[in-house]
């Protein structure tokens, strides 16, 4: 297991490196630069700014500068306190020496660094992703179990109809509907903003409903397959109560495929909050990401994609490890 984890971590580092290359290349393939505005800057000032951020260099050289400043050892006691506090992640590698992640300055927000933007806004997106996952699991698993245990009945058809509805209606459609009904007409919930549990209800439902449909369909299919296995028929032949058969034997094995998708699904929910945050006015990282694309703020784009990529590979690794513990038949070597 340890060898498997180490091997996966090395592969993940390679994946992250390839992601930085692709993202950096795509950003610079788009026409225009970060300082091309409707009101052009004087040529001298623009040249000085581009030289400051190495934008006057070839793309390959710019990428080298970015990777050089991304993860470098620093001697902490000699650095200003403000710079030490700006570190996003630090690893101690020696007496007074730390390995810091430095995502660089923001071109559009001159007074803020990318580290500062991510540190302040990523927790909001992460919290929204957690709430959406709770909604998806809380609705999807019971709905799938109910449909499987009542196959080809009204409950089965009703549950799967709800699942199809959840998959068919995107956030960009469901979000305004929820705001119009519960925020504007009924005034039960605040339509925009963040900070209280009431603010999180509608965004979590809008973001998690489609995922709950996926979990419901997967739970139903997996449970229907498990309850037809020989060991389930043996347990019934021995006179074991149906409730115990479902809870102790069928349900645990049927949830293994569900657990497998929870990691990527959670990462997808956190990284897919862009539209939701825009609709509900949530101060998360997604809004900054969309704005940075419009403004061609390369460091914010790179930093956001890199952080989300790290989150995704970690989620996949955790799911693989959890999968091995849930299913004794699986052993990683």
Automatic annotation (TrEMBL):
InterPro entries: BPD_transp_1_N, MetI-like, MetI-like_sf
Transmembrane annotation, as ranges: 128-150, 162-188, 200-218, 255-280, 300-326
GO cellular component terms given for this protein: plasma membrane
Cellular location(s): Cell membrane
An individual GO BP term: transmembrane transport
Classification via PROSITE patterns: ABC_TM1
SUPFAM superfamilies registered for this protein in UniProt: MetI-like
Family the UniProt entry places it in: Belongs to the binding-protein-dependent transport system permease family.
Protein name, per record: Dipeptide transport system permease protein DppB
Lineage: Bacteria, Bacillati, Chloroflexota, Thermoflexia, Thermoflexales
